[in-house]
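Changelog-linked ticket: magnesium ion example.
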Amino acid sequence: MRFLDQAKIYVKGGDGGDGCVSFRREKYIPRGGPNGGDGGRGGSVVMRADDALNTLIDYRYKQHFRAPRGGHGMGRDRTGASGADIELAVPPGTQILDEDGEIVLGDLVTPGQTMVLAKGGAGGLGNTRFKSSTNRAPRRSTPGKPGEERWLWLRLKLLADAGLIGLPNAGKSTFLAAVSRARPKIADYPFTTLEPRLGTVQIDHDSFVLADLPGLIEGAHQGAGLGDRFLGHIERCRVLIHLVDGTAEDVAAAYRVVRREVASYDRRLLGRPELVCLNKADALSAALAAERAAALAAAAGQAVHVTSGVSHQGHPAVLRAAWQAIREARAETAA
Ligand SMILES: Nc1nc2c(ncn2[C@@H]2O[C@H](COP(=O)(O)OP(=O)(O)OP(=O)(O)O)[C@@H](O)[C@H]2O)c(=O)[nH]1
Ligand SMILES: [Mg+2]
């Protein structure tokens, strides 16, 4: 399994408008000269990197993009209108590959960067263009050129630095929404999140990519719930942020279920840096939060963060700790 980071799309530039055959018709001038205008150029399909986006998920639902055609030329030397370009927004870091997914045609790295995917066709020539000393009344014009068309693969190289794990309903999507511009679906029932979602988190002057993952239940490694479809994703995260719903009676048990599933999938994942959070603290009294945080810390064998996706309590501290751990993990991989 991989993140939703590739998509195949079809793009077509607009066809050019046709050139026009027309002659001047004026009173008292029996044979007016040619005045057919040129066709307008077709619109192009342009791709633009937009940092408000972080997945290619939109391109799973809409795959075909056609720019409008150019207007046809008209009499009285009027040129047809150009077709407007259409712009497709993708997250920075998107690569554009050929139809076979083998040749990289372009790389949109910085926000605002653009690339033309399919040029619109040139407009045809009107008969005015064919006037010559030997042919004063040409009946000739050319049709517009067809717009370029092709299939392309989009691939997003973005990998999640950190992943949110926990039981269903622990508040993972709420956490991601609170700390990034991502807008995952949030609802009060288990398995709201069916696909991983990525968000870019800004902390101080740094940023990292955080993945919201589907909830995990007992037996997940054998396929229960969304099962190992989900577990494969956490392999790609350098750091795990483990949210435990603080309103649950037994937070230690909730923590252990998730750890057991992670371990059954791949024991090596237990060695991943993990930040543990007692979440939904806003729904608890201070005393109860402290008591549950202590129980959770004992189960986790490390200090825990007390957090809330509602009040944002604890978020800066968790994000800073996550960034620190990501930096260390990156340094290790680089070494
Ligand atoms: N009081 C309180 N409620 C929260 C908090 N975070 C999430 N919730 C609520 O808990 C419910 C589940 O939240 P989600 O963010 O969808 O939980 P999730 O972990 O993404 O759930 P799945 O995607 O199903 O695994 C929603 O009704 C949220 O409004 C929090 O910090 N405090
Ligand atoms: Mg969710």
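Closing comment: Example verified and attached. The mean pLDDT is 90. The two ends are 27 Å apart (CA to CA).
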